[in-house]
Fold this protein.
Amino acid sequence: MGSTSAHNGEGLGRRDLIKRSAAIGLISVPTMGFLSACASSGDGGNEKVEKGTKSDKNPLGVNASAPLDFVLFDGGFGQQYAKDAIKVYETNYPKASVKFTPTQKITTTLQPRFNGGTPPDLIDNSGAEQMDMGVLVGQKQLADLTPLLDAPSIDDPSKKVRDTLRPGIVEMGQFDGDPVWIMYYAYTVYGVWYSQKLLDSLDAKYPETWDEMLAVCEKAKKKGIAGWTYAGKYPYYVPFSLYPMIGKVGGREVLDAIDNLEPKAWEHPAVKTCFEAYYELVKKGYILKGTPGLDHIQSQTAWTEGKALFIPNGSWVENEAAKTMPADFDLAVSAPTGIDSSDKMPFGTIWASGGEPFIVPAKAKNLEGGLEQLRIMLSEASSKNFTQSVKSLTAFNGGTDGIELTPGLKSGVAALEKAGQNVVNPRLQDWYVALQKEKIGVAGLGEMMAGRATPAETIKKIQKYADEAAKDSSIKHYKHQ
């Protein structure tokens, strides 16, 4: 939610945003204001710099002396990986100055600049104040990244950048047709995270069926350990394990129907079965007491302290929770537990996809510079640096040779290998940010997981939200091709 996105350790920005929201739905107001402004903003006097001369060393035609303006979401991955990549840019273009702005308040920082027609050249559009990418694409505010993808890669000029990326990365950046609007830089494994040491201490193995899950949680409860915790204040973390479970039980076509905002998609039996399974965790007392009031850091801290066995999260958690994670924690991730052998997809079905979405505004002054900075970041050296420093994979298909993988990263790679082709990639958090976070997440799943709404009530509410989004002519709609 990212996304990963929507999901990459969104620190204070997210907490502040939700605190400011007096009622459900208010969080979307900044986004909508942003959109209407974008739709009407003029050129703002933002004259583009002259293009440089294309060459083997400068395939994108970067102006070697033009300044570069780079705004980064300062979340779970931190800033250093971006600073290191900027140093490479500055080495290659010593006459260029780079303005680097890390922030957790993406919309607050960038709305005035987009409104004035003076956006930066490269943006890591993540966190709670993430700008709605579906709307940005619909309002033609983003540059097509195809020139970057068709440029020669840093490491092997005989290969295009697109040929060095993990499967699905290019497609994730598309919305309608061939243009690619977003480069998802991180490669995130979503699922159920746990301490292998703690699981071993219970003389238990990771549960593959729901009966086994309940048995493990009961065993933990008898030891004074909760089965689960989650980011109660931001319950859109719950889908990191719930959505792939729905796909496992009912098939990936159920997730596609949900993404497509199809009528009655949320009423599918697989959705009902999985909601009822999660609700059983609530009713049996397997959720850590007080979880609905915890933010992502607090829930992760309780989990690393051994107060809860399982937590739904993304692979950024290894870096984000490092300060409180014991050295012998033995971090592991698994694909979500299914119901039983009647599930449509096998155990191991997991959600993995690009996270940390980078965009280049269409009105960027130094558009070529923004693309070139991304090209540098997609090199093997930058990818390895990112993986080593933040314990996460990148969109670059490789970059792990010679690196001693951390426990969580090693477990994530193993989970991907086990999944094989059984990788799902729900797109709601990319296509409909407000719907996914505020409505399905906070108003829907948040209420159910707090025990304040039944699965049937929650499904009815979420289907209503999805139907409203489908009928909203102000929203750009997308479908799986």
About this structure: The longest strand covers residues 183-195. Residues 189-350+424-469 form a domain with the D-Maltodextrin-Binding Protein; domain 2 fold (CATH 3.40.190.10).
